[in-house]
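FORM 7B: Structural annotation worksheet

SECTION A. Query
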Amino acid sequence: MSGLNADIVDRAWRHLGVARVAVRSSGLREDGKDRSFAGVFESVLDVSEDRLGDAVQTVQRSFAGAAATRYAVSAETGGIIVQEMIDAEWAGVLFTRHPEHGGQALIEMIDGVGEALVSGGRTPRSYCAGRRSGILIGDVHPPIDVAPLLALGRKAEKLFGRPQDIEWAYKGGRFYILQSRDITRVRSADAQGRIEAERARLLDLLRDAPSEGHVLIQSEMSELVPRPTPATLSLLESFWQPGGSVDLASRRLGLAYDVAEDGAPYLVSAFGNLYVNAVEEKRRMAPISAFATFRLARLADKVEARFRGDFLRAFLKRMAVEQVIDPSRLRDAELFALLREVRRRFVTETYVEASMVNLLAALYGQIARKELSARGLRAESLMVPPETIASALQARLPALPPDEARRAFVAEFGHRAALDYELGQARYGEDARIADFALGHLRTAPAPRHGHAPTIALDRRLAAQVARATRFQALKEDAKHYVLREVAVLRRLIVAVGERTGLGDDIFQLTLDEIESLVEPARAHALAETVRERRDDAAAFAGVLLPVAMTLSRLETLELGAKRSVATGAGLLKGTLVSGAPPVEGRARVVTAADAERGTDLGGVGADEIVVSRFIHPNWLTEITGARGLLCEVGGWLSHTAILAREYDLPMIVGIEGIEAIGNGDRIRLHPDGTIERLS
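SECTION B. Predicted structure
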């Protein structure tokens, strides 16, 4: 015990009250977040009392050893840990995040003490499990129940805030944690590495979600903006944050909206695709009581009158000024001040009005559909919305001379785009090419039906419910049309910031907070690397195809490539009918997910064709009017496509899982209950 006080060692030993100990290093720079010194410093195992002093000195000398000096910039200093020696039945290492797979944990184990594994003297058995679900992957399972070990790993990861490399021992039905360090080396930043890093990020984001049940789903929002830029995602998510549009609209309507200040986001970008956090949606949106339903039903006239009256008069007056502001003539301070003000006002004032309409449109639609269903009547064909601004213009365009039609289109729709809420997409008024493309389709499409009286007699109460629901469908579309004027103003200001900072279109790779921070000139250089990283991520994710709905366990194990597995077997697929009156039969016109995202021109749709797609891109909204029917993975009763489909009495089924089983050219039959029969 040279150099050590024998009395101190003796007291420490008696305090431990064990027969054998392990003496381990604990360097100050060892196992940091950026690098690990694993295996560099000494550990001495199975130490008796009389050897304790020598073991401590052996570990202490290793801090200044040649290996440590080469590994670090200078010799390491630190502490020494003395632990009870576990005579392990099994021992090994748990990587709470697999170095090669962001969705899995990796367990390596041997029988007996784990020193031979750590030193590389023995080849371990390896097993994988879902990082969050803990579900074992593969047919061969460990010889002991590792669920408690995985739970300890998740607890350690949460405590340290990073994935952990944990040494463990198992004896007498119990796991012992010997050491835990940050994992510092994962797959490199190639395309597959970026994919696995994104998988890991999503699982971290959803760490408290249940293992089963959907955690990510694509909804009507995903149809509006399939792959949002960071700027757009930050705008959309601000609608759902505390003090955002939905929160404020809910308060005005007296609805419960349970959103925590530090809660998980409602909207999630998963490999570039827009999803709704299903756990947050369920938590935030409490069921509406019968009394609240009755109270809200009486607000229809008041809410519509406010929107079309006081709000719209003031809003359009303000837009008449802001839409003609030339951002290039503003000083930097003025430009950023206006950007902050327009953003604040849109989220906390303008879109609050639209959100009130959206919430009531959803409620009134549910009430009417429930009552119609109770009487055995089909809401899909009876609930046709009255004329909207868009449909009124569409009805006028074919009769106008080409030049006059173009002027009318740009005057009314110049502030809109194919993907209206995507800030990075040029508006029709900015780009004559996309304006002419949209106008060409509108001028050749058949006129939609509007406000037709139901062919079935309805009692007075039900007729009023249907009228209110369809009226709010139209109001929802008109509200969107108007408020998008302010989105166009916001886009013009962001474009101006991009031009001044030299970022150009890369400006949309930044969040709105990051864009506003560019008021400090040095920030543009600092954020350039962020832009490059996000562009590289977007390139890596471009070919990733995902299910419409995902559970945690599916996210952990999903093969993330450019191809999706094809559902097998014949039989029926199932979705929700939102328009039309099946049964109808036709030939499948399958559109790839990539073409749906880009809005690739369909080149015409035959009268015998049923369009089968992940969702309907807005570029197709006039092309598909002549189809026999529509089948979509993504969509809802109040999606823009569903409303349009009802205007044309076009059979449409949404929310279909296993849609990839339908091949191009297959004969299929759509049924009134939302099932799809594959005939060939």
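SECTION C. Observations
The two ends are 85 Å apart (CA to CA). The chain has 23 helices and 21 strands.

SECTION D. Sign-off
Analyst initials: ____
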